[in-house]
From TrEMBL:
Organism whose genome encodes this protein: Elysia crispata
InterPro entries in the record: Peptidase_aspartic_dom_sf
Highest taxon above the source species: Eukaryota
Name the UniProt record assigns to this protein: Peptidase aspartic putative domain-containing protein
Lineage: Eukaryota, Metazoa, Spiralia, Lophotrochozoa, Mollusca
Amino acid sequence: MKKEVERSGPVGYGVGPAHVGYTRTKNATTIMQVVKTKIAGAEVNVMFDSGSDRSFVTLECARKLDLQSVGKESLAYCCFGENESRKGERDVFELRAFGERVRLVGSYSPTDGQKVRQVGSVGQTQKSQVLFCQTELSDGLIRNMWDLDTIGISPSEESAKSKVLEDFEGEVRFENGRYTVKLPWKDEETKTTLVENRVITERRLQGLIKRLEKDSSLKTRYNNVIADLEERAIV
């Protein structure tokens, strides 16, 4: 339900302690200002949303305040957590308070990024426009961008691959009916920075030995495989 409000009167009339509430969407939490107040003798909860173009009232609250519809309006709206807006026809209500009438909807002008001071029952608040830009780039676009920035500065990846392939082909040997080759290192620095995994290997070996001691049939199969590899001169 949509509520177009006209109210006035002493600031802070019928307002209780203010607190901050929140609404949780699927991936984020939106924190909103919430205040408890009295309207026409009925206690209601008011939630302030500075980004909303309209003021809304629930059907339950409208019935509690005995509000009468003064017309209908077609509008598109999007609630928290929704990706697409919905269109519908909503009732328009009018609320009057004691004292001078002050229109709250449609009584402001664009500020073009300037700060606006807002005096309300919960104190002074300031609001202004904030520029936020988020762009998603694929890894391929980022890589191409860096490649353009480093032309002539860093060696190309293709030349490094060619050097590794050249060293690999130069180390291949055919001996005793089989090929032998050394491990292809990317560069000499890699040999010194490579982390030793001897401790991890020994732990795995001890674990395998304990496992074989508990299962004699598994130990026999392991021995048969190793013996076959030795017989064929593979190990």
